[in-house]
Amino acid sequence: MINKKLFSHLNVEDSDPVWEKLIKVEFSKKNIFPDHKAYLLEDGLVRKYYLHNTSDTDTQICAEFYFPGDIFTVGGDGSEGIYESINKGLAWEITMDEVKEMFAVNPECRFVQNYYLSRKLNAAMKREMLLLKNSPQNLYEYLLKNRPHYIQNIPLKYLASYIGITPISLSRIRKRIS
Known about the structure:
alpha+beta; 25% strand; globular
């Protein structure tokens, strides 16, 4: 049974038919989530990353992290990134076709869509400003102060990628701060 309280910020009624459409997905570490689906993350940690091809190697660039209570959607054209679990967990999935159908049938679903999209847009704009205006050390200090759950839960190699530096540089920053 889905933990509806965890997703109460979506303002979806307990009796809404959307809850019946969600399929339980237990996943293991390093699970890649399939395309054309939306997920409500109940337990675990998921990262979104892009592959950056250089002449020698493929580098993973972490773009976002999802914690319990978050929603993420996986597109389908590959340019939207790869969604991979960092540890084992539980999510509830629904196909994007079902989501589109619900929007057409139920105008109240638009509220959830608008809420979700506005949160994603605000988060993306904030991250962009943080990256443009701050040094990697300032970004790490921001995360320490404002997002301590990132520091506590995300492996350092992914955190370094998220900040835009190497793990060695992140270790140096951590050493300077402590």
